[in-house]
Amino acid sequence: MRLIDVTNSYAHLVSQQLANTNAQLVQVYSLGQTTVVFTESPHHQEVLFTNERRNIQDTEINFALKELTNKTIGDVEVLRSKHLAEVTLRSSAVSSN
């Protein structure tokens, strides 16, 4: 697995996130057919996974979390819905990286 930075291809999404939220950093990655959006704000980090064809797999979540936050799937609570998964790391979890 490889995370490929495709942030430049999502300039509109990134500019909207930065303009309309308290996000200080927005990065978009490709993980095969899964898109990963990493957002960092003063009080938390969010990692959003989306795939138009199937549900998000635990291996994808675990890999991206390790790469982006040094956490594992066992360290976090994952919110899931169809073709979507989200992880939020609050400020206490963010500062312990």
TrEMBL record:
<dbReference type="InterPro" id="IPR038226">
    <property type="entry name" value="LMG18311-like_sf"/>
</dbReference>
<dbReference type="InterPro" id="IPR014959">
    <property type="entry name" value="DUF1827"/>
</dbReference>
<dbReference type="Pfam" id="PF08860">
    <property type="entry name" value="DUF1827"/>
</dbReference>
<protein>
    <submittedName>
        <fullName>DUF1827 family protein</fullName>
    </submittedName>
</protein>
